[in-house]
Amino acid sequence: MPHCGPRPKKPVSAFLMWINSAGRNYIRAMHPGISPQEVLMKGSEMWGAMVDEEKVVWQETARTAMADYKKKLEK
Questions:
Q1: Which one of 16, 45, 63, 72 is most buried, counting C-beta atoms within 10 A?
Q2: What's the pLDDT tens digit per position in 36-51?
Q3: Separation CA 42–CA 21 (nearest Å)
Q4: How many domains does the chain have?
Q5: Residue 69 lies in a domain
Q6: Which pTM was predicted?
């Protein structure tokens, strides 16, 4: 019987990649002192207003991470 180790961690979405890497710092700089919930709300508004060309790098990274995750699950 093959050994079933721990499941790999599921990757985050393109939005969460953006907010964790660039969005959060930008929002906090523009709106000092806002709560984490407000950061996510403003980030969600900003993400929704972004054109696809601005999102593509995050979407591609998320797609690659998900493909890697699925390969690890198959092993």
A1: 16
A2: 999 999 999 999 999 9
A3: 15
A4: 1
A5: yes
A6: 0.80
What angle is formed at CA 62 by the lines to CA 14 and CA 74, rounded to 5 degrees? 140
Asked whether residue 5 carries a pLDDT value surpassing 90, the answer given is: no
Contacts of 10 (CB under 8 A, 6+ apart): 69
Alpha helices in the chain (DSSP H): 14-18, 24-30, 36-49, 52-74
Tokens of 72: 């690890």
Q: How far apart are CA 48 and CA 43, in angstroms?
A: 8
Please check whether residue 33 lies inside any domain of the structure: yes
Q: Which two tokens stand for residue 67?
A: 């493909």
Residue 2 in any domain: the answer is no
- Residues spanned by the domain of 47: 14-74
- Establish if 8 belongs to a structural domain: no
DSSP class of 19: I
